[in-house]
Design a protein that fits this description.
Chain lengths: 81, 411
């Protein structure tokens, strides 16, 4: 079980690996598309890497609901519970 | 009268240099790019061939990590070479709707394809990356170059095995002559030094097995030749309509005076022993360029160093050039670079253009005992070309019976 801070840090690492964005720019209220300019192909890569890192399953139909970094952190946190 | 087309920018990343100036300095001196492969998979699969000619400058030293992540290695090489050719041309303002790409590959994204297969088998379909398809597709290099430079008049991918790179120049010339583009980034890229292609080429006995002496393995025209050496990298040539180049005061390396492509329709891999398809390609290219055999002073030969391949090319040259063949100096640069497959024609075109521009010919290394059945005048030490009009040829032939020839003329 990871804390929300740990999930955010882990997600920031994955985003940095995929896009080169600085990990500190990956904040809870940032939109993946509007703020971080992440396209759907990168998003799918991030999702699959997050599944492996956090040991959760993020269904494809759920991905469209993950608009902000916070949405993703909360979903992962809930899925781990 | 067809539009004249000139070459104004050159780029390359090769086993004998990561850019054109380094490659050319080495090509004139004569170095071998072949080395033992330092990778665990050589031992793991007990490959019968343990060496290759790998690029001197890894793509990771040139491209950013994120940039490289979305490209197959073949596309990485293409983008590196095309960017160098673009910078070299001095082009800045351009009508992007009149700018095309003709960037070839022989095999395409084989690393990506096989990595994805390994991932599928080990981890299942969800772990197969969403970028897999755009990375493995053979038009990947052309598409990436088009995207990188904003070329919108079409991004083409000639695929004709080891003739691909030369066929890209043929296609580029046609695009400009027919009025479909004014500027074309032509080239070829290959990154197939992977255990599967090595195993496959080895199983058809196409590769040299001189495992204990890689630097002397690629030896075109030598009686001891026993196969080609796998190479990798890319070459790029920015070509443009002469009036376009003159209007912007560009430095012009030479004229792409003519090209041709023919097919043997003889055998899927073996060259026609009489060199008939290659002869027709040579004659057609000279006709296209409006030059005579007596105009030719230099040939960059295909010469891969296989026992069966080198001689039919000689027969074709002798047939097409007649007795003038005795006055033609031939360079076999695969002796240095290894065989870059779909990139070879592009890299050799860069060298042919530089030979005409600098009036110096690259050397053929490892020629110790010249095959008596191939009595060509081979350039083995740096040699100059005379002042005055110069015309040079570069040949490429590929599995499938593909023959492609370009004619480069001094300006």
């Amino acid at each position: 079980m990871a804390s929300n801070e740990e999930i955010l840090a882990g997600l920031a690492e994955i985003v940095n690996e995929e896009t080169g964005l600085a990990p500190e720019s990956v904040e809870m209220d940032k939109s993946f598309t509007d703020d971080l300019d992440i396209d759907s192909i990168s998003m799918m890569t991030i999702v699959v890497n997050a599944e492996e890192k956090f040991g959760v399953r993020i269904p494809d139909e759920e991905v469209k609901n993950l608009k902000t970094v916070g949405d993703a952190v909360n979903f992962i946190s809930g899925a781990q519970a | 009268m067809a539009r004249k087309v000139v070459i104004t920018g050159l780029g390359a990343t090769t086993p004998i240099g990561g850019d054109v100036p380094t490659m050319w300095k080495n090509a004139l001196k004569g170095v071998s790019g072949a080395r033992t492969i330092e990778a665990d998979w050589v031992q793991e699969y007990e490959l019968p061939v343990t060496f290759a000619a790998q690029v001197t400058t890894p793509a990771s030293e040139v491209l950013s990590r994120v940039e490289a992540k979305r490209m197959d290695p073949s596309t990485q090489f293409a983008v590196i070479a095309a960017r160098e050719a673009w910078r070299d041309s001095g082009l800045e303002e351009i009508d992007h709707d009149r700018f095309a790409v003709a960037f070839a590959t022989g095999i395409g994204g084989v690393w990506t394809l096989l990595d994805a297969w390994d991932t599928l088998r080990a981890k299942g379909p969800r772990r197969v990356l969403p970028m897999t398809v755009p990375m493995l597709m053979p038009n990947g290099p052309a598409a990436a170059v088009s995207l990188d430079l904003g070329a919108r008049a079409g991004a083409h991918t000639p695929v004709s095995a080891c003739a691909s790179g030369t066929e890209a120049l043929h296609q580029g010339l046609e695009l400009i002559r027919s009025g479909k583009a004014d500027v074309v980034m032509c080239g070829g890229a290959e990154a197939a030094i992977h255990p599967m292609p090595i195993a496959a080429f080895a199983s058809m006995h196409a590769l040299s097995r001189r495992n204990d002496d890689p630097e002397h393995a690629s030896r075109p025209y030598d009686t001891g030749r026993d196969g080609f050496v796998m190479g990798e990298g890319a070459g790029a040539l920015l070509i443009e309509a002469e009036e376009h180049a003159l209007a912007r005061g560009a430095r012009i390396y030479g004229e792409l005076a003519g090209t041709s492509v023919t097919a043997d329709a003889y055998h899927i891999t073996a060259p026609d022993p009489g060199g008939l398809g290659a002869t027709r390609a040579l004659k057609a290219a000279m006709f296209d360029a409006r030059v005579q055999p007596s105009d030719i002073s230099h040939v960059n030969a295909h010469a891969t160093s296989t026992p069966v391949g080198d001689k039919p090319e000689y027969v074709a040259l002798k047939t097409a050039l007649g007795s003038h063949i005795d006055n033609v100096a031939v360079s076999a640069t695969k002796s240095q670079t290894g065989h870059l497959l779909g990139a070879s024609g592009a890299v050799e075109a860069v060298m042919t253009v530089l030979a005409v521009y600098d009036r110096k010919m690259p050397v053929t290394i490892n020629l110790e005992n010249q095959d008596p059945e191939i009595p060509l005048d081979i350039v083995t030490t740096e040699r100059t070309l005379p002042a005055g009009d110069l015309v040079a040829l570069s040949n490429s032939f590929g599995f499938g019976g593909h023959n492609a020839v370009i004619v480069v003329r001094s300006v």
